[in-house]
Structure formats: structure tokens, C-alpha cells
Amino acid sequence: MTTVTQHAEQLSTTTLLRFATAGSVDDGKSTLVGRLLHDSKSVLTDQLEAVEHASRNRGQEAPDLALLTDGLRAEREQGITIDVAYRYFATPRRRFILADTPGHVQYTRNMVTGASTAELAVVLVDARNGVVEQTRRHAAVAALLRVPHVVLAVNKMDLVDYAEPVFAAIAKEFTAYAASLGVPEITAIPISALAGDNVVEPSAHMDWYGGPTVLEHLETVPVSHDLTTCHARFPVQYVIRPQTAEHPDYRGYAGQIAAGAFRVGEAVTVLPSGRTSTIAGIDALGESVDIAWAPQSVTIRLADDIDVSRGDLIAPADDAPGVTQDVEATVCHVADQPLAVGQRVLLKHTTRTVKAIVKDIPSRLTLDDLSQHPAPGRLVANDIGRVVVRTAEPLALDAYADSRRTGSFLLIDPADGTTLTAGMAGQAFAATATTTGEDAAADDAEWDF
Q: Which tens digits make up the pLDDT trace of 331-364?
């Protein structure tokens, strides 16, 4: 019992890192993840026995560690990754949430899903093939999603005789490309996922490399998802009005703090109405507190009786986001049905969902060379492009570069609720400005706003 208690206390004091793996087909992503789990003693005995049994049935002498993540039957049969596989593991130094994303071009949308909340992306490259189109595509997606740390894992070094010049050439090409996209930090590590070189333990075959192993870097990279330092934002999820004898006049606004911190007595603005008030009280877990911060779920009480409802945003009066009905954004289209100019959609931003129209699609991005295909007219599955959306009601929207939580949104099919597109408001890349084209001026006949 003592051991369990000590382990629980240890986990509660360690930091959490969310990271995603990506790479071209057969670069060894699932093998790397399996090796990482296996060598860090994060695989249960029955899981390992199941992998060993499945490997023997396929005629393999050694366990195929890729099977630890490729859980779908189609993935095992084809030897590829199709869906995002999430794995949770921990070491004494840090806890991890890992998203193993597919490598095929047609599953780019899955990488967007897996990397959307990641603080670090591991991009794998086959040492024999070097940087290929899909490598550049994944680097571009990581840059679009503002992933702060990128690791280049040059895999299968055992198949190129652990040659330093091969690694150096690949690292130089990738670093130059990723830096041009505005990726703030790039770390290159030569590995062999199959043999275990530089994954958890240092390699005996690459004495020319003096950097960290993959796990060592994951354990020590600075975690930059401290939401308390961001612009304070509180999307209202539910209005609490008990109207009981004990609380006849209680009016509270419940939700999860998306970013920053709120204090009793602080002047705040309610958006999109623009009405101002001060925080009279904050209730957390049934108790009144003086301060609350992200990502706590709390109830905020205001000093003035003003109209506040679900979907409204409470922000500091001196640091409130702008309100707009014209949203210009970079989007990744995730649905099989295309997104076209003039299409009616629902836009979901935090707890607010409003009607909207796609007024313009100025460009589609070609990720292999970052060229812009002007005026494509529509986006199909896995396309990344710029859109201009007009909403029926004003939105309090941050730029995605300032806040990944309140700068992102979804476009939804109003007919069946299907998610069509994931959007990131504002500019595309940190280092480049993207032309969004002229705003559409014509109003829609049926949804006139």
C-alpha cells in the first residue's frame, strides 16, 4: 500500500508533456513508440505477451513492438497506422500523453487532431530516404499548429552503418526548412527504433553523437503550456440560478477557465455585449476563493446584474479580445465532403456556436513547397487553406498565435452535426504573412448577416 501511495504522490508532483509522433509511411513511428514504452518499462506483462504471440503468428522471431500502438485490425494487417493512437505512460521525472499519428497523405487530418494539443512533435525520417514530401508536410502542420518544440528523429541509422554525414545532411536540410516556417526549437537525434539506439539508452554505435536520447529530451524539455501566463479568458458554459430559500438571489456563471487567472475585485468585460462589471466572488469546489486560474472549473459571480448567457466570454477589462463577425483563418478540412464558397455552416468557438457562411477561400496551401494555390473555390479532405467566414453574431476571438485555446474553432455541418473543418484564427505561420484576399461583400439571401 505504501508503494502505491508513494507512486501516486510522485505522479502528482511531476509535470505533464503532451507530444505527437509523425513521419512518412514506414519511417518507424509505431516501432519508436513501442520501443519507448518497452524500454521505459511502461508495458504491462500481458500486453507484451499478446504482442509476442501476434508476432510469432506472423512468422517473426522477435516481438514487433509496433503492435503496441497499431491496435486496429486493418493497421496490423497492412503494417500501417490509420487512426491516432493515444498512449499514457510515466517515468519518475515526467508524465506523458502520446499521440501516434498516421503517415499517409490521406490521413493528414489525423495528424492535425493529434498535434492540436501537443507541446512537442517528434518527426521521424528514414535515414536512407532523407527529407521527403511528407516530412515537409508534417513540419508545416506542426508550424501551423504552433507546436513549440520539434524533434527530428533520424531513424534506421543501423541501415546506413550509423554514418554521421548521413545524419548531419538530413538534420541540416530539415532544420533549415522548419526554421523558415517559424518553428522556435528543433532538436535532431539519430536513432534506431528497432535496435533501441538513442531511444531510451545511449547508443554504443554512435560515439560521435553527444546529445540526449529521445526519452531524455522528452523528460527535460521545458513544458510551455502554463496557461496562467496567457491572456485571461473565461467562456461561460452554464448560468446557475438556484432560486431557493437559502440562495434566493444567487447568480453564478460556471465554466472552465481557458487561460490566465481571475481575482475577486477585478474589473471584467463580458463579450460580445461589451458590458463591464467586477468580480464579486469565485466559487471552486463548493468554497469561495480569492483567485482561480486555468484550467480550473469555477463559478464566477459578478457585482452587477447584467445579461450573461452560455457562450459569452468574460475577460479582464483592460485585456479583452476584439469582437468581430468576419473571421479570417487558416483551416484544415477534415471531412470527406468538400467545403465550398457560399456554404452555410455552424461555427463553434469555445462554448459558443453561431451560424456562419463561408464567404471566400482565398487560397489552398501546397505543403511540399509552401506555395499558395489562389482561389481554389473549395477545400477537400486533408486540404489546408485560408478562409474568410462571416458569422451571424459577433465573436470574441483571439489570434491562434496568442492563444491556442481561444484562437481555434470548428466549422460544423448544420444538417447532421459533422465536423467539417478545424480553424486557426489569424496568420498562418509565425515567420510568414499570408494574403487572405479581399473580404466578400455580398450578403447571403437566406442567412443575411
A: 989 888 999 999 999 999 999 999 999 999 999 9
Q: In sequence order, what DSSP letters do the residues of 249-298 get, joined into one string?
A: T--EEEEE--BSEEETT-EEEEETTTEEEEEEEEEETTEEESEEETT-EE
Phi, psi torsion values for 232, nearest 5 degrees = -70, 130
Three cell numbers at 125? 525520417
pLDDT for 268-295, tens place per residue?
999 999 999 999 999 999 899 999 998 8
Reading the block at residue 270, the C-alpha cell is: 463580458
Please, which residues bridge with residue 278 across strands?
A: 267
| Omega within 30 of 0 (cis) for the link into 272 | yes
The DSSP code sequence of 126-195 is: ETTT-S-HHHHHHHHHHHHTT-SEEEEEEE-GGGGTT-HHHHHHHHHHHHHHHHHTT-S-EEEEE-BTTT
- Which regions of the chain are under pLDDT 70? 1-14, 43-85, 102-108, 224-229, 367-369, 430-449
